[in-house]
Amino acid sequence: MKDARFKVSPLKLRVYLACPLRYRYQYIDRLPPRLRPHDTVGTAVHFVLQQFFRLPVEERTPECLLALFDQRWASLSPRYRRMPGAEELQQRARRQLEAFAAREDLRARPLLLEPYLEVALAPDVVLFGRPDRVDEEPDGSLHVIDYKTGEPPEEVDAAQLRLYAIMVQKGLGRPVSRASFWYLEGGQVWTAAVTAEALAQAEAEAVALAREMQGAASFPGRVGPHCARCPFLYACQHREEIAQRRQAERW
After folding, report:
1. What's the number of CA atoms in the CB half-sphere (13 Å) around residue 245?
2. Distance, CA of 220 to CA of 182 (rounded, Å)
3. What pTM value is reported for the model?
4. How many helices, marked H, and strands, marked E, lie in the chain?
5. Residue-wise over 147-169: b if at least 16 C-beta within 10 A, else e?
6. Most buried among 17, 168, 184, 216, using CB within 10 Å?
C-alpha cells in the first residue's frame, strides 16, 4: 500500500524556501542535476570522515585520514579530475583534513555516523534525513554535528540543525542538548541552542511548510546569488536574466 504521507528532508525544505522553481525541477520534474566540482569534493570529504571514524581507534592517524582521502580522490572519474580547478579543490580538501586531524580528537567514539532517520511530525508529514554525526555527551544527552566544507556564511541558518535535532531526539528517544556546524575551512564551530521551545517552533514551521509545498499549484523562480550554484541552472527558464544579473552584480 502506497504511503500517503508527505515526506520532507532538511534539504528539501531549504530548496523550496530558496527557490520553488528549483524545487519543481529537482523533486517534481526530477531533472538530472549538473553538480559543481565543489559538490563532488564536499561529498568525498564527508565520505572519508565517515569511513575514518568507523575504523578501530588504534588505526586512526592523520596519515590514515589523508590516505583515505587520496584513495577516494583516485576513485573519481579521470574526466572529473582533469576539470579546471579540480586540482586546487583537491589540495584545499587535503588541507582541511590535515587541519581537522591536528585540531580534533581522532580517538573520539561517535555514537552514530550518518544514520538514516525517519520520524512523523504530523499524521500526514514525515521528516527524514542523515545527520553527519551524533556524539554522546558526558551527561548522556546527544550532540548532533554537521560538517561543512565551504566558507562559513555571514549569517548562519540554524533551521537545518534544529531539524536534525528533531530527527535524532524523536528517532532515538533521547534528548539532544547541542547541535553544531563544524566548518572544516578555518575550524570554526557554530552551535545552535537546542531547547524544547526552539524544537517545537522548528517542528511547527516544518509542518506548515510541508503542507504549503504539498498544495502548491505554481513554482515561481527566485533569482539571486544562489542561482550561481544551482545544479539546474542549465534548464532554468530564467537563465538569461540570471546571466545578466550575475554580470551586473558580480555574483
Report:
1. 12
2. 33
3. 0.91
4. 9, 8
5. bbbeeeeeebebbbbbbbbbbbb
6. 168
